[in-house]
Design brief:
Layout: H1 18-27, E1 32-34, H2 41-44, H3 48-67, E2 73-79, H4 103-122, E3 126-131, E4 133-135, H5 148-158, E5 162-164, E6 172-176, H6 177-189, E7 201-202, E8 206-208, H7 210-218, E9 226-228, H8 233-238, H9 247-253, H10 261-271
């Protein structure tokens, strides 16, 4: 049990330990689990077996607890990393070719299929969203391919220029953290019978590139500079969609984004106290 400044209780539990998870869930009368444990796309390429083990077996633990009716409802995040070189690039639909090129994407696609299997075969209530890159002020970059969209703000705050690992015109779908959380809440509060997608829902906020974000930040500080030197993450980014079509989320649970690029930049500047 970890002490916290909030009124919430925090317990450190090994996500790979079925017994530990079961004990903590039963001891604390937990009925709803938001399973976020994962190793992300770029970091995952450095240790594929560890990534597969954590991403998949931690999910199996939660799915089996739901199957045994120990958990009533589960949220599990998927990712645009499930898409690949042969997926539609623009307005990528819910149903399209998926050939992920990272172990993270492979694990997420497998996870989507397992969620669908448990929902249809065992009657579980597991819900999921395929997130684009998430831009957030309250967490530091954690090893994802879209981390530049967070890291660039921290460079501006520290007064340093930013070295970007993607090409300046690399377009990727993004979402601001408040929209991401709102999407999770709306999905989880929706009646189960309304949800046609049993694997994972496409959602999106806006599409942007490193250059587009940099230009917005130069309006804050004209001296701010970004240099571009792509690395292995460029290949990953190039395999992902430029934009996402999320009609099922809009129709099934009234999804609607509130933040575009300009509003996101304004919010990040405010939350990070960038002068």
């Amino acid at each position: 049990y970890d002490e916290s400044k909030s009124d919430l209780k925090y317990f450190r539990v090994d996500a790979l330990s079925y017994d530990d998870l079961k004990k903590n869930i039963l001891d604390n009368d937990i009925s709803e689990v938001y399973h976020l444990a994962a190793i992300l796309s770029a970091k995952g390429e450095k240790d594929p077996m560890l990534t597969w083990n954590l991403n998949m077996n931690s999910l199996f633990n939660i799915l089996n607890l739901a199957k045994e009716k120990i958990i009533k409802k589960v949220f599990w995040p998927s990712s645009i990393a499930v898409f690949g070189d042969h997926s539609s690039k623009n307005n990528t639909p819910q149903f399209t070719d998926k050939e992920p090129i990272t172990v993270y994407g492979i694990s997420k696609l497998a996870g989507e299929n397992w969620c669908k299997y448990y929902n249809e075969r065992h009657g579980t209530d597991v819900r999921s969203i395929r997130f684009p890159g998430v831009i957030s002020y309250n967490t530091l970059p954690g090893g994802g391919t879209t981390d530049y969209a967070n890291d660039i703000f921290h460079s501006l705050k520290s007064g340093k220029n930013y070295n970007c690992y993607l090409k300046e015109n690399t377009i990727l779908p993004m979402i601001y953290i408040d929209d991401a959380i709102n999407g999770i809440v709306k999905l989880m509060e929706s009646p189960k019978d309304n949800l046609r997608i049993k694997s994972s829902y496409n959602i999106s906020g806006f599409s942007t590139s490193p250059k587009m974000i940099a230009e917005e930040l130069k309006n804050i500080n004209k001296e701010f500079k970004v240099e571009y030197k792509s690395d292995f993450r460029q290949i990953i980014a190039d395999s992902w969609p430029n934009s996402i079509k999320d009609k099922y989320a809009r129709e099934d649970w009234d999804w609607k984004e509130n933040f575009d690029l300009k509003k996101t930049v304004k919010e990040m500047i405010s939350k990070l106290n960038i002068r």
